[in-house]
Design a protein that fits this description.
There is one protein chain. Mean pLDDT is 86; it is low at 1-23. This protein is globular. It starts with 13 loop residues before the first strand and ends with a helix. A hairpin with a 2-residue loop joins β11 and β12. It has helices spanning 67-74, 97-101, 119-124, 139-151, 167-180, 197-214, 225-231, 249-252, 255-262, 288-293, and strands spanning 14-17, 23-26, 29-38, 41-50, 56-60, 82-87, 90-91, 104-107, 185-189, 217-221, 234-239, 242-247, 266-270, 277-281. It contains ten helices and 14 strands. The strands form four sheets. Strands 8-9-10-5-11-12 form a six-stranded mixed beta sheet, with helices on both faces. The chain has a four-stranded antiparallel beta sheet with strand order 4-3-6-7, covered by helices on one side. The chain is α/β, with parallel strands linked by helices. Keywords: ATP-binding, Cell membrane, Ion transport, Iron, Iron transport, Membrane, Nucleotide-binding, Transport. It comes from Pseudonocardia xishanensis. This is ABC transporter ATP-binding protein. It is a peripheral membrane protein. GO terms for molecular function: ATP binding.
Length: 294
C-alpha cells in the first residue's frame, strides 16, 4: 500500500497488458473500518472490504442491509461517519474530483438525466473526466462513445431524448455512459433493474467481456443470487450493515449461509451450465412435502 504522504497520486498499483496488447493500469480500492450513516443513523458498521483488482465482485444481501450504501461510500457519493476509503493507498476524500473520475466510474441505482438530453449527449458525458484545458474532444472520445452505444445495443437510439425511452432502454443507455468513461474501476448498483431476463444475462456477459478484455475491476450490487454466483469471481454477503461472508462463490455459498443472510430455507445445487452454486428456494407451498400433505 502506498503511504498517504507519497507524492504519486492516483496511478497504477501494477502495470500489465490487456488482451489487445495495450498497457493498462490496475488500481486498488478498499475500505478500512468504514462506517456510513444517514441522518445520524448508522447503516454500515465499520466494515473492511477490498475489491480484488482485475476481478468481478458481487455484493449481495437482503433489502436494507447496506449494499447500495456501501457502494456509495466506495464511490465517495456518501462521506464516511467513520473509517476511510483508500484509492491506490490514499484517502479518496482528499483527491480531486476529475482525477478520481478518470479512474473510478459509478452507475447509481436511480440516475437522473437532464430534461431533453439525447442519448448521444448523455453517453458523451462519460468522457468529461478526460477533458481539460489541454485535452479537448477528439477521435478517441468519438470512438469510445460509438463503442459504448454498440455494445449496449443502443446505437439506434442515439438521437432520441432519454426521457422518451422505456425503462429498459434508459438503463442500457446509462450503462453505455459508464462504459464510455473507460475507467479501471467500475461500480454498478443494481444495473439489471428494468431489464428482462435475456438482457440481464447479456449485460453480465458484456461486463465479463470488459473485465477479461481490459482487466477492469468491477463491483456490482445484485439481487439475483444465481446470476451473482455465476458471474462473480468474488462474492460479498452483507446483513444488517456488516459483512458476514466473502470469497469465491463455490466456497461461500451454502444453505447455511443463505439461511443466515436471507432467513430463507433453500437447497444449494451445482448449476449444470456453469458449475457454480445454484440456489433453489424452499417456501411453504409448491414443495413435494407440502403437496403430499395437502
Amino acid at each position: 500500500m502506498t503511504p498517504e504522504g507519497d507524492m504519486t497520486t492516483v496511478h497504477a498499483r501494477a502495470a500489465t497488458d490487456s488482451s489487445d496488447g495495450h498497457p493498462r493500469t490496475r488500481h486498488t480500492l478498499l475500505a478500512e473500518g468504514l462506517r456510513l450513516s444517514y441522518d445520524r443513523k448508522e447503516v454500515v458498521h465499520g466494515i473492511d472490504l477490498q475489491l480484488p483488482p482485475g476481478k468481478v465482485t458481487m455484493i449481495i444481501g437482503p433489502n436494507g442491509c447496506g449494499k447500495s450504501t456501501t457502494l456509495r461510500g466506495l464511490a465517495r457519493l456518501l462521506d464516511p461517519s467513520g473509517g476511510r476509503v483508500l484509492l491506490d493507498g490514499r484517502d479518496i476524500g482528499t483527491l480531486p474530483n476529475r482525477e478520481v473520475a478518470r479512474v473510478l466510474g459509478i452507475l447509481p441505482q436511480h440516475p437522473v438525466a437532464p430534461d431533453g438530453i439525447t442519448v448521444t449527449d448523455l453517453v458523451g458525458r462519460g468522457r468529461y473526466p478526460h477533458q481539460g484545458w489541454f485535452r479537448k474532444w477528439n477521435a478517441e472520445d468519438d470512438e469510445a462513445v460509438a463503442r459504448a452505444l454498440t455494445v449496449t445495443n443502443t446505437a439506434e437510439l442515439a438521437g432520441r431524448p432519454v426521457g422518451s425511452l422505456s425503462g429498459g432502454q434508459r438503463q442500457r443507455v446509462w450503462i453505455a455512459m459508464a462504459l464510455a468513461q473507460r475507467t479501471d474501476l467500475l461500480l454498478l448498483d443494481e444495473p439489471t433493474t428494468f431489464l428482462d431476463l435475456a438482457n440481464q444475462v447479456e449485460l453480465q456477459d458484456l461486463l465479463t467481456d470488459l473485465n477479461r478484455r481490459s482487466g477492469t475491476t468491477i463491483a456490482i450490487v445484485l439481487h439475483d443470487l444465481n446470476l451473482a454466483c455465476r458471474y462473480a469471481d468474488h462474492l460479498v454477503c452483507m446483513k444488517a450493515g456488516d459483512i458476514v461472508a466473502e470469497g469465491p462463490p463455490r466456497e461461500v455459498v451454502t444453505a447455511e449461509t443463505v439461511s443466515t443472510v436471507f432467513g430463507m430455507r433453500c437447497d444449494v445445487l451445482v448449476d449444470p451450465v456453469s458449475g457454480t452454486p445454484l440456489i433453489v428456494p424452499i417456501g411453504r407451498h409448491h414443495t413435494r412435502d407440502s403437496e403430499s400433505t395437502s
